[in-house]
Amino acid sequence: MFGCRAESMLHFQFCCISLMSQPGYRMISKTYGSVFSVQLGTERFVILCGYDAVKDALINHAEEFAGRPVTAMGSRTSQGYGILFANGENWKVMRRFTLSTLRDYGMGKKGTEDKIIEECECLMQKFRSYGGKPFDNLSIINAAVANIIVSILLDHRYEYDDPTILKLMRLINENVRIVGSVMIRLYNSFPLLIGWLPGKHKKIFENHHKMQNFVQDTFTRKEKELDVNNQRNLIDAFLAKQQEGKPESKLYYHNKNLGMLVSNLFAAGMETTSTTLRWGLLLMMKYPEIQKKVQYEIENVIGSAQPQVEHRKEMPYTDAVIHEIQRFGDIVPGSLPHATTKDITFRGYFLPKGTTVIPLLHSVLKDKAYFEKPEEFYPEHFLDANGKFKRNEAFVPFSLGKRSCAGENLAKMEMFLFFITLLQNFTFKAPSGAKLDLNPAPGFTNAPLPHEICAIPRR
Q1: pLDDT in tens, 309-367
Q2: What is the reported pTM?
């Protein structure tokens, strides 16, 4: 039997989409266990619920669960190129290149910390320009975070009202919302039936084409300016690999891989980090007593000095709050889908090669066995009895194993510096009469619902 108890199969042979949400899967797991399958149209998924099952798959059987499923949508867009949805040797080469290049131009580098600090100053100036009056922070925070990944990809920075960055952010935000919709699930299940109909899937194709045109124009210009002895960013490094003339250069370092890799990194580098920061400010407005505790720790440890990454180890409460923002925000609840790379018997169930597997990160971050109050915003999840920071192994917002987020260290640096700098300089309050709703907006990621904030200067 394919990955599921017989009674589970009888219950879930349907095409109803309404139950296919992360909380819905958690409810199902209470009856059918931590491993079960669901069928939507022609697609069948194996769902993994809870930290133990997800860790078992992604760590103990890392190689067997390291694939990505081939979908109708992916075949029209990524086509197996880049890093997020690639497979086999192409994925391995692109991931190795990405990790090594991010180390060279991004993660862990003092130069990147300085760039984030400079961007923090620009963001503060923009917040101050509202004079404490209500404003929507979506576009502003998106642009600030996007500038960090743009600096690594292109060695460039955009003003927050620059038409180029506004267009790129709109394309990404729109596709992130659409890709979690019912129409996309239907398209992947019935591509021949749905493909010719009007709908949101057509918008994804249109936005993808526009994004690839931008990337193509950008690295065409970079190619003309390339100095292999003075590589300044990720695109320079890729183009230099392209010109090495080795067999690997032609096989993997071609323009289709470059186009998708840049698109993948730009989208991933902007969306999740900016969404986490927006959750952070919303939660500080919702829980002003927690905001005050963070500001008290900032004053005691940093004062009016410039926040640095090294301050994190002296700020256990703030570190716990940032971790809890990520846990509670549950930014990528379903993770990106995995696929089995070979036939495997997992926890008593036979999964053929190519089986689509959903490691439900939502169920991990809300796992009652590891978090005392999983449905509440509770920073004490990451504090011991003495108020010192306490790690929790079920804290996996960046996923686990071979497909874990390549930019995890960069994202952590960004979140700490942006969050600390903003709380050092502003107190965040809800507009008069506003009701703060902590339910997420619909989409592939869990973003806050539209709202306004008031940034009250503290100095």
Answers
A1: 999 999 999 999 999 999 999 999 988 999 999 999 999 999 999 999 999 999 999 99
A2: 0.91
- Angle at alpha carbon of residue 115, lines to 112 and 120, rounded to 5°: 130
For 18, 185, 204, the CA distances from 178, given in Å and listed in that order, are 16, 10, 7
In the block, residue with structure tokens 């990160």: 361
Host H or E run for residue 440: strand 440-441
Report the SS3 class of residue 56: helix
Pairing label, strands 356-359, 338-339: antiparallel
Mean pLDDT for 149-164 is 91
Measured CA to CA, the distance from residue 412 to residue 434 in angstroms comes to: 31
Chain length of the chain: 459
Contact 65, 240 (CB under 8 A): no
416: closest CA among 247, 221, 273? 273
Residues β-bridged to residue 447:
441
**Beta strand 43-48 pairing with 356-359:** parallel
Q: Which two tokens stand for residue 203?
A: 């918008």
Helix%, strand%, coil% for the chain, nearest 5: 55, 10, 35
Contacts of 42 (CB under 8 A, 6+ apart): 189, 190
Residue 328 tokens, joined = 């509670």
Give CA 90 to chain center in angstroms: 22
List the alpha helices (DSSP H) in 33-71.
51-55
Cα separation, 327 vs 321, in Å, equals 10
Tell me how many degrees the CA angle 248-253-254 measures, rounded to the nearest 5: 125
DSSP letters, 336-347, are S-EE-SS-EEET
CB atoms within 10 A of CB 208: 18
Which helix (H) or strand (E) segment holds residue 242: the answer is helix 234-242
Residue 188 scores a pLDDT above 90: no
Tell me the chain's radius of gyration from C-alpha atoms: 22
> How many whole angstroms separate alpha carbon 238 and alpha carbon 98?
9
